[in-house]
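INFO  loader      accepted 1 record
INFO  loader      residues=66
INFO  predictor   begin
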Amino acid sequence: MKDSYAGNFILGCYADGRRITNAEEYALANRLATLKFSKIVIEQHGEKKIIALKMVLTFKITNQIL
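INFO  predictor   done
INFO  writer      dumping tokens
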């Protein structure tokens, strides 16, 4: 996941940094994804914060355009 907007996460790149194409992103729509995190990096008001917490989160991927 690359970014978030109004509480919605935005897909945008693979774990190795390569960009996801629109066709690949659309192919993922309407699926559930379970991701395991070792840390989450967020940026608020230009300041990066790290949440160092191991967790598993499940997301519903939609084709909603924000």
